[in-house]
Amino acid sequence: MGEFTIKMPDVGEGVAEAELVEWHVKPGDPVREDMVLAAVMTDKATVEIPSPVSGKVLWLGAEVGDTIAVKAPLVRIETSAEAAEAAPDSVPEALAEKVLDQPVAVSSRSEAGAAAQAKRPAPEPAPAPRETPSFSAKPLASPAVRLRARESGIDLRQVTGTGPAGRITHEDLDLFLSRGAGPVAAPAGLVRKTAVEEVKMTGLRRRIAEKMSLSASRIPHITYVEEVDMTALEDLRATMNRERKSEQAKLTILPFLMRALVRTAAELPGVNATFDDHAGIIHRHSAVHIGVATQTPAGLMVPVVRHAEARGIWDCATELSRLAEAARTGTATRDELTGSTITISSLGAIGGIASTPVINHPEVAIVGVNKIAVRPVWDGAQFVPRKIMNLSSSFDHRVIDGWDAAVFVQRLKTLIETPALIFVEG
Amino acid sequence: MKEISCKLLVLGAGPGGYVTAIRAAQLGVNTVIVEKAKAGGTCLNVGCIPSKALIHAAEEYDKLRTAASGKSPLGLSLNAPAIDLGRTIAWKDGIVGRLNSGVTGLLKKAGVKAVIGEGRFVDGKTVDVETETGLQRIRAEALVIATGSAPIELPDLPFGGNVISSTQALALTKIPETLAVVGGGYIGLELGTAFAKLGSKVTVLEALDRILPQYDADLSKPVMKRLGELGVEVFTGTAAKRLSADRRGLFAEENGRAFEVPAEKVLVTVGRGPVTEGWGLEEIDLDRSGGFIRIDDQCRTSMRGIYAIGDVTGEPMLAHRAMAQGEMVAEIVAGRKRSWDKRCIPAVCFTDPEIVGAGLSPEEARTAGIDTRIGQFPFQANGRAMTTLSEDGFVRVVARADNHLVLGIQAVGHGVSELSATFALAIEMGARLEDIAGTVHAHPTQSEAFQEAAFKALGHALHI
């Protein structure tokens, strides 16, 4: 019996460490070659780690959630004696196979390169097995027909061949296409389409899916929508942008909202929290790390403006624009994408009138920003045009009651409608 | 450090690599190819092409010797033929040189940027190349690994001195008096036969119980017979041990019986292994399959954006497989829908006589649980074969019993390598026995034996 240590592979793109997100095996489990042992996640993708050998799991080198450095031992597997010798660097395997093909018996030598050869002293009588092409599984068609089918997105297994021995001819393909079964059917009129495109869920998309499932299945959401008059804040914002210094980033409404959140969180610490539901502990954070949901070409990312409580409004704006750019170009680091204590979700101009934001687990609150629209508002004597915006905010109802949620949003509303309050000392 | 970016980077300019690069460039993909030595890889420089040149020269010389011995049934005679191996090798090098510059020219014409030097992976998207003018960093969106294979060394008979690989055997300028060939696969037998024809006393040592183990006994029998006529001694079930003290012999062992084989040179041809070291593969840690890089039906490796083609991905290690894979990968990178759907990869063994196979052998069809009809036609009954003194061998067709679909075709005989095209075409097109039988084959040619084999399988051969 031997032991094979699988190290954390370099998952590429300059990643020096990765987070273990799932074990597919536990100590004592038997494993086959190629079986998936674990999944690790980098900032950009989740990578499955397959087993290069068959054997039995002896030891796992980390727990789910641990960050593991590249090349650190991950799993130890007990292997049969044969594989064990080739194991430490796994390269002599090639040699071993080739020697099987042409076994010229050699005397035992112990140096690394010879190890694989030396362990198989007896010639194998049978010739090396060759790949046996499977004919029955493949539809019968000439290369030209196969190419046409592939380019038209047609699976030839669905086409009936009328040629000799069931061969699929060009005419069979024409017939199949003319029935509207394929995407390149004749353009005349409306045709039925049956093609289904399979898109494998990988990388960031998969990570988003996992996070969303976790949030939606674990957290009982309560969503509260309130209308906020943005007219005063928009006037202030316009003035500040007009007078800003050239090195200052242009203000959107988000930095105002961030500063308002900081103030509200100081008064209502229950919302700026993370909930460890396994341990049953709510962590109320004094730091306000604000995640800002950002659309990138690859999908949704949440860069984090750290310590918003210690940043002025211009600093918030600068940091936010830097992080958003880093997320879009894929250069944001792991630290910049994790660790938020509360999240803002904004779709800007396409923000709609209301939304049901999904909480960024394990946080307990998320503030969704809807679109600003000029609406007529009754001021007691007449209708006046005001800039109105809805805030759609979700809360973890296990931690925050409806009453508290409403108090929080109303406080936020007050600050935004009278933006001077955001900047008042004390 | 200089830095360039491209859409596609190809590592290795062998038949797989250069075809990938040319096809990609044709499709408008910005392509860079890295090669540390000369364009053309093993095939063109130290494999297929030079070995065929040497085999041809040896065959011509052998014909002259037959005539000089007065045994030519054609009534030819001449005095004291001679060969100047130095000139033969120079002629061979001339062909290789022409093809080298041909490939280089094709790459240039297609607009591929060639970088000469040792490439090393930095990460899955970046390769550093040590060029004559300094370090060149290349960033690519997609990479193709086409680093090929190299002869496997035996621990007790390391290459060097009198122990040579196929590469050195193709560069000998003096015919060795005695040559021991370790490994009776196709490379060893092709070269062993050539040197026997050039006048060497050749001994073949094979550990298995027969030579050419990938072919069935019917196919290898004519080759065995010819080796006997050429005075080549073949020891099967025999292990090569070590060089004798005077380095003029090789100790071998057959069933515990040790003996010495005269060997001015020892040619070791026990197989080829993938070239997976020396270019930073450890930096990216791709999945392997028995030491070869594991690929799927689109030649994708375990890391996104990295493809592998050719010998580095395993058997069958054939230039035409690498080229077909390369063409496919180039088209995939250019955004076309492609996957590997070939029915067969024909394989040719340039022994005397030649062996060619495409598709399933009778044994493989049996193993796959298919009921078969087999037709075999001997060249003894083929007029063209008689007129070229090439009566040894046959063509054999393996078809399904139920619908007569041709599953595999094998042949052994003089010049049958050229039949590989028609064999492969029949299988790719999904031909039935009736299709082959119903195609008019020109008379008098050896290809008639193919049609007759189909007739035979249908139960009505005409000329036997």
What does this structure look like?
- With 426 residues, chain A is an alpha+beta fold.
- Chain A folds into 3 domains: 2-90, OB fold (Dihydrolipoamide Acetyltransferase, E2P) (Beta Barrel); 135-198, Dihydrolipoamide Transferase (Irregular), CATH 4.10.320; 204-423, Chloramphenicol Acetyltransferase (2-Layer Sandwich).
- Helix content of chain A is 29%, strand content 24%.
- In chain A, strands 9, 12, 13, 14, 15, 16 and 17 form a 7-stranded mixed sheet that branches. Chain A has a 4-stranded antiparallel sheet with strand order 1-8-6-3. Chain A has a 4-stranded antiparallel sheet with strand order 5-4-2-7.
- Residues 82-136 and 181-186 of chain A have low confidence and may be disordered.
- With 464 residues, chain B is α/β, with parallel strands linked by helices.
- Chain B contains 13 helices and 24 strands.
- Chain B has helices spanning 15-26, 41-46, 48-68, 85-110, 166-169, 186-198, 217-229, 319-333, 362-367, 383-387, 420-428, 433-437, 448-458, and strands at 2-11, 31-35, 113-116, 118-123, 126-131, 134-145, 149-151, 163-164, 178-182, 201-205, 233-235, 238-243, 249-254, 257-262, 265-268, 272-274, 288-289, 292-293, 306-308, 347-349, 354-359, 372-378, 393-400, 406-413.
- Chain B starts with a strand and ends in a 6-residue tail after the last helix.
- Chains A and B meet through helix 2, helix 3 and helix 4 of A and strand 12 and strand 16 of B.
- Chain A: GO terms for molecular function: acetyltransferase activity; dihydrolipoyllysine-residue succinyltransferase activity; lipoic acid binding.
